[in-house]
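Researcher: I'd like a structural prediction for the single chain below. Treat it as a standalone chain; there are no partners to consider.
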Amino acid sequence: MSKQAFQQTVAETRETYHVQQLDDGLTDRQVTEGLARYGLNQLAVEKTSKWRLLLRQFNNMIIYKLMFSCVLTLLMGHRSDALIIGIVVIVNALIGYYQEANASDALERIKELLSAEATVYRDGVRQDIPAEDVVPGDVVFLEAGDNVPADIRIFEADNLRLQESALTGEPDSVEKNTLPIDDPATPLAERTNLAFASTSVTSGSGKGIVIATGEQTEIGQISSEVNLAEERKTPLMKEIDGLGKGITYVIMAVAIGLFIISIFQQTYALSVLSLAVVTMIVGSIPEGLPATTSVVLAMGVSDMAKNKHTIIKTLPAVETLGSVDVIATDKTGTLTKNEMTVKDVILATQQYHVTGDGYAPEGKLVPVTQESAEDTQQLALFLAAGYEANDTVLVNESSRWQINGEPTDGSFLTLYYKQYPYPEAPVYRELSMLPFDSDNRYMAKLVEDQAQQRLLFLKGAPDKVFAMAKTADPAFDEAYWTAHVRRLSEQGKRVVAVGYRQETAAEITDQTFEQGIQLLGLAGIIDPPRDEVIASLKEMNQAGVQVKMITGDHPLTAKAIGETLGLAPEIKTVTGAELDGMTEAEFQDAAVNNQVFARTTPKNKLDIIKALQAKGKVTAMTGDGVNDAPALKRADIGVAMGISGTDVAKDAADMILTDDHFGTMSDAIREGRRIYDNIKKSILFLLPTSFAEGVIIAFTILMQQEMPLQATQLLWINMVSAITIQFAFIFEPAEAGIMKRQPRKTGNKLLTKHDCWQMGYVSVLMALISLIAHDWLLAQGVSETVASTMMVNIVVLSKIFYLFNIRTNAPAFSKASLTNPKAFLIIGIMLVLQLLLTYVPFMQRAFHTANMDLTGWLIAIASGIIVLLVTELDKWLRHRRTAD
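Model: Treating it as a single chain, here is the predicted structure.
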């Protein structure tokens, strides 16, 4: 089995890529052959054309029905009807197109991450070339400030450190070396002899051989995964599509049945019969459904942006939040602050708990026992040592505390300023410094105080510093200190040892540490949870939403953080390497049963999302790095961080948290559930009234009578009144206990059996009342125009009264009916429109209406009251059965 690049020695890498001399690099002939074989060092980006985006908006069952109805009504000569239906279709398509066309392309953003230039050795000459011309085998020179142009096997490193957090999720920059790595399962974050395209050099310099370019690089593979990741339909869109198909089949079956029956009855001429059947179809189709759904979603998106610090990029995504039952999330910067913080200081005779989180120097050091003068002196020396053995800077920019350097070093600066005023620093003059090195695993600084006394300050890995302490003091109590290291490590904390020694030399040399060091103490450091996360996770658990943490951390550290956060009552952990060795079925079970995924790769994240979806879970994925992009795009809803997130993550996501607060997710889920409820209420409200019109026409055909309603009157009921009244649902507040119920199950139908039953009897009830009233008026000698006008008002007022039943699960005759004042304003507007329809001359001409007397209005009001009372009785019986 061939070795992977990080397993190869430098000599093996040279042989693989035919590099004769490292100082010479490739020849021009080798470069030409490399370009012909591998292509340019760039990422291919496939863009969807504008016309394809537009056509995609019409791929919807309800839209198909509307277009079919538009064509039929146009063929029948009803141009105004066809025009109104056509406008609904076009507006709905334009809304969807606008959302997609304005969403930035994640692949373009990934492409922009690649370096513009590279420094290479070719034919013995060091030269700068366009990064796209780099080929495998090129010898590349790297120095601080450079972006790595391709994936590189390093063969020379001088304190070379790279920032790889966007790719691996690890916050600290990584020191690179040249040694081969034996373990083929070594995760990406631990491949210390490789440099990856799109990462940046933070310090030092080095050289390496290019091992992959373009789409073969790690970031190129992420680009391909983003491109291949399937965007699934949201649960709501699936349910509405299913509903649309069901409505279509029922309406078409009834229409064909009526057409056949009427032909045998030979009551109507073929042209009259065709017009009647088309009128029934138009009346039965809920033309307002796509528009109303879009408006409810759009208002939800607007509210989220204004009040919840959340940008939703696609309309259906806001509702998807309400059906999410699993959130897979990155740890660093999402659940935690990505600001390393010292929480414990352990001295020989005292321990301190440190308050305050993050880089802001707000908090204090609280002694566990009574503090002595010796403790105070030792603490001051400990803080000074941690401050001085440091090459990071702490600054306050735009009211936000930030560091320029390493997070661990930054935590010691913040610790110092929790004890002393910022920006006062210890009064020492630097003489010499030894930067952190992965071989030594410590850093040191030689300083001189005002009395010209020289001190050597050092901090580093406990085992390294303990060895020095034993050299200086054979009686050093290693067991005491090791026990503290073990205890802090089990809490998920990184432990750093701090020491010092009085010195006479003027610089640090190889012999400086031979005399050992005096241990001052230990610091327990953690990336603290965000303030809002723990409360938010508790609320999500109550709502039946599982949260799974995916991180590159060590399993023990990750589990400890999961327990601190309260991810679940019992935390189960699995590593990326363990997942890679599982069968597909085992992987899916592991994805469901574990709460923490440690030492993961970008591919693991994507596979976890796929596995959860295969198990029927509606998934959200949160993240901020380039490595999160494929999983963000694949998830049912991808959520990126707005402040710390990379452009790639933001563009691959459906939703952006502008304040980076994970706690906003619980607010977003609540809003998503509210929006889903209100869309369902809209549908339950709209369909019975639309069906009632179809039932009226169907009864008329079966009774072999003249049509009681004109097509323009049907469109008035379907479009103007329906959409106007349905605006009430936009402002409907969330039902009580909305975050205590479980997420709706995947594959559930939008409407329950009871919903269908209620729609059926309400449709028939409205139709029968309208037809009986219509025939009664005709029997009283009233004109057909007045009778049809009253029928229109009966249907509309029935809608208004029915609205109070649908708006809330609580009884209509309760305080719940008063929670949405705007509903009454909208009802008032609708009543004004009905008066205009009934009494204004030009409206009478357009819609075939006439003046109504008081009797007609009383009949219309009584009809609405009957509908409300019947539906409220049904609600009371349903609640009683549920309570029993």
